[in-house]
UniProtKB/TrEMBL annotation:
<feature type="transmembrane region" description="Helical">
    <location>
        <begin position="82"/>
        <end position="100"/>
    </location>
</feature>
<feature type="transmembrane region" description="Helical">
    <location>
        <begin position="256"/>
        <end position="277"/>
    </location>
</feature>
<feature type="transmembrane region" description="Helical">
    <location>
        <begin position="169"/>
        <end position="188"/>
    </location>
</feature>
<feature type="region of interest" description="Disordered">
    <location>
        <begin position="466"/>
        <end position="531"/>
    </location>
</feature>
<feature type="domain" description="Major facilitator superfamily (MFS) profile">
    <location>
        <begin position="46"/>
        <end position="432"/>
    </location>
</feature>
<feature type="transmembrane region" description="Helical">
    <location>
        <begin position="42"/>
        <end position="70"/>
    </location>
</feature>
<feature type="transmembrane region" description="Helical">
    <location>
        <begin position="289"/>
        <end position="307"/>
    </location>
</feature>
<feature type="transmembrane region" description="Helical">
    <location>
        <begin position="319"/>
        <end position="338"/>
    </location>
</feature>
<dbReference type="GO" id="GO:0008028">
    <property type="term" value="F:monocarboxylic acid transmembrane transporter activity"/>
</dbReference>
<dbReference type="GO" id="GO:0016020">
    <property type="term" value="C:membrane"/>
</dbReference>
<dbReference type="InterPro" id="IPR011701">
    <property type="entry name" value="MFS"/>
</dbReference>
<feature type="transmembrane region" description="Helical">
    <location>
        <begin position="407"/>
        <end position="428"/>
    </location>
</feature>
<protein>
    <submittedName>
        <fullName>Monocarboxylate transporter 10-like</fullName>
    </submittedName>
</protein>
<feature type="transmembrane region" description="Helical">
    <location>
        <begin position="344"/>
        <end position="366"/>
    </location>
</feature>
<dbReference type="InterPro" id="IPR020846">
    <property type="entry name" value="MFS_dom"/>
</dbReference>
<keyword id="KW-1133">Transmembrane helix</keyword>
<feature type="transmembrane region" description="Helical">
    <location>
        <begin position="142"/>
        <end position="162"/>
    </location>
</feature>
Amino acid sequence: MLQMRRLRTLLHQVTRSLEEKDNTDSLQKEISFLDCPPDGGWGWVVVLAASTHALLVSGFHSAFGVYMVSLLETFKSSSSRTAWIGSLSYGFIMIFGPVSGKLLQKYGAIKVAVFGALIMIAGVISSSFAHDISILFLTHGLLVGIGSSFAYTPGMIMVSLYFTTKRSFATGIVMAGGAAGTLVQNQVHRYLIRTLGWRTSLRVFCGILAIGIFAGFAYRPLEKRRHPSVVENFQTSPLRGFIVDLRLWKNSVFELWVCALGLAKFGFFIPFVHMMKLANDLGISLDDAPYIMVGTGISSLLSCLFFGKICNSENINRLFINQASVFCVGVLFLLIPFCKTLTSLIAFGTLLGFFDAGNYVLLPVLTFDLMGAEKMPVAWGFMMAVNAISCFGPPFAGWIYDMLGSYNIGFVVPGLFSVGAAGILAFIPRLKKTAVQEKKNIIHASVCEITSSIIPWGSSSISEGTLNNSETRRSIPVTSNTDITEDEKGEPSGLAKEPETPAPYENEHDVVLSEEEEEDIHEVSSTTTST
């Protein structure tokens, strides 16, 4: 009889240990993604690679206005139709953002970035042989746009994952790469077009784009233990298909965020496409007009570094800076009808570059802050897809110009959209506060439930039969009287206050240990240890 009792208590002890191990493993799996990223080290190499892609991709798309004048002369097409080529290319960067995020999770950032650079090269070199403007919609609009998305998106996501306290500054450096591309490539392409023609200029640029292939190999993935929820735990329903998890759209903060930024970005690409034509209509020579974009590039470069640096501080309200930047951009667009000279247009371009960079540099940072590391790839992809509304801006401005012979309305309407977007952003803090409070309530309840089930062996709760199997553990109610303390060794103790009366036994396998059985446990444990 004594041997049977010892065997029963020993089996119960082993079962209890295994169940506690399962709980611990499950808890570690849920919180392991909270381990801090490197915040430096190889992350700076990732920043350099992402800056290179931003310089090549953003710079090339911002230089489309230089090519537009040559395309209008070559194909004799309307301004609105020609503007659609650059707009589609830029729009596909945004539209394929969710696809890029999904491919990154499945195949890794290196493969996606290298593949994107190759597609972009194929699209650019194909565009140089186009003899009909319709072909450019396929080569430049589609291929270059998709390749740009695959090459550009991984860098933004990887920088956000590699940094924590320095995330704003690192992102600012990447955005500064894009601003440097605007500054440099407008001048380079203008020189190449003037000396070699626009077709040869594109072929020469293909050789420069090859740098993006080598830069893609720098996106070394983080250790899986750091962010398993991003790499391994991405869950989608089969009905949601290949692209992304649509449950993110149930988040009211995310919905408001992408809605506001979608409105703000409607007019983003208009100056890059139509500024050269606008300056030419005002009597400014094509040799002087590029200085407008030079001012934009320089101010944008400095702005990216400035906002990236100051936004590292915890005392800075990043959302407010973003909101103010969007509002100022809207005001500048509203003032474009009063800009009639080269000096005023350079001032417009300089201020636009400064404030727009203050908005643009904070997009991935705020997306990470609002959504977190686990949802960052999908959230960033969706945000880019919604911001594809910017591809409608240049055709809209071109259509207004074809109808009225003026760009004034084409700039004023996007300006009103930006001012409205700034107003929408003002509602995010209140929604965020409500969402955080709800999350705290869920976390508090979850912690109480977890800690109330991890009871050290030999505690009085076990002797009363309240926590003898998984069935009863799951059925224990969590009350507001639950207290969590630590003993001298820092271990959790007193995890759950016991009811004044023993809980009834709901399962026939519940075990009640008498004092004699508890002594047997110590005897069996001692025998096992000595063996």
